[in-house]
Design goal:
By secondary structure, the protein is mainly beta. The protein has a single domain, classed as Rossmann fold, CATH 3.40.50. The protein is about 10% helix and about 35% strand. The protein has one helix and seven strands; from the N terminus they run E-H-E-E-E-E-E-E. It has a five-stranded mixed sheet with strand order 6-3-2-1-7, covered by helices on one side. A two-stranded antiparallel ribbon has the order 4-5. Helix 1 links the parallel strand 1 and strand 2 (about 30-40).
């Protein structure tokens, strides 16, 4: 985490490990944050960079997602990127 330039992370739902606090603290510390947006036509996802929690809106399945009208697509994952994914 300390060396990551960008944090790619999901925005948690109520029964998942809470990422909202981590996202808020990282944004307050000036970190770049990218969150996924579901693309219904392809069933895929695309990450968009958010600058505040207000950039998130309810999307498909009620999951908070970046508002593509307010957020720019994030670059590709690579060196300097930490990706947080949900797991069991």
């Amino acid at each position: 985490y300390a060396g990551a330039e960008v944090l790619f992370t999901y925005v948690s739902k109520p029964l998942e490990v809470d990422t909202r606090g981590m996202i808020s603290r990282a944004l307050a510390a000036g970190r770049r944050i990218a969150a996924p947006l579901c693309i219904p036509q392809t069933l895929g996802m695309r990450f968009y960079e958010i600058r505040s929690m207000e950039d998130l809106v309810p999307g498909r399945y009620g999951v908070l997602e970046p508002d593509p009208a307010r957020c720019a697509p994030a670059g590709e994952a690579g060196p300097g990127v930490l990706c947080v994914v949900p797991g069991l």
